[in-house]
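Troubleshooting entry. The earlier prediction with adenosine monophosphate gave an output that would not parse, so I re-checked the input for stray whitespace and re-submitted. Clean input:
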Amino acid sequence: MQEVTKLQDMRAWSRAERARGRRIGFVPTMGFLHEGHLQLVDRARQRADRVVLSIFVNPLQFGPQEDLAKYPRDLARDRRLAAERGVDCLFVPELEAMYPAEPLVRVAPGPMADPLEGAARPGHFGGVLTVVAKLFHIVEPDMAVFGRKDFQQAVLVRRMAADLDFGLEIDVAPTVRELDGLALSSRNSYLTADERRSALALSRALRAVEQAWRGGEAGPAALQRRGLEILKAPGVTPAYLELVDDELHSVARADARTVVVVAARVGATRLIDNVVLGEGVASDISVRA
Ligand code: AMP
């Protein structure tokens, strides 16, 4: 596995590979890799000839009260996991190279960044899309893979690529969960054993909504009430549970394409999860973590 830190070296690597006719797949991450990230690598492998994985904790997407300084990092472990999984090029740009000066020109994510995570985290998606646009320009991939775990982010990245003519394919991969349903997240490392148990309320709430829908309930208010009942477990502070379409609008009736999105605080940790009703939590990938 090649490891690259300089932006010009990354671009040169990609251009050399493309000149040899190779299709490049890209997996952007903030590191502290887990099986969710590594499944994105597998998908990129299946859809491209070369896989680039980037690790960059992007300060632009953290609010002033958020966990930037204590965001978990372990580059030595990430390097080993990426190499074992067959990543061809690990791109670890330095902060000063990505932001030599305060970036004045940024991507405006538009109205799909207003609800849900965007409402709770002002400026977050502008920061995400700005760094993703930069990474796309540096890596110049043919395709990039994002996880549906961060549903609003995936929707926004796909829309940015279309609206701004990035000319690359965006692939969205199913959520990877632990066997008991908890969606893998680097932030799970903040949870105590008790909090880890409380955190199961998110996937349980999604399952409860899914079951009610399969049982014939299609009214979003009733489905939301059912989900919130389960989400309000000891140690869990619900933020939202909503039923939305693929442009993040609230739905008038739930159908197979409706996405149930949920966010809650468990202890000091904010967690998110979602399910596409027609696919169900069980169709996501389960792994022993
Ligand atoms: P992050 O390092 O948290 O910025 O995530 C990097 C990429 O991995 C994003 O596209 C995430 O959506 C994706 N990802 C994170 N957790 C999971 C998961 N449990 N299942 C699938 N994809 C995930």
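This one parsed fine. Residues 29-30, 36-37, 40, 146-147, 149-150, 173, 175-176, 183-186 surround adenosine monophosphate (CB under 6 Å).
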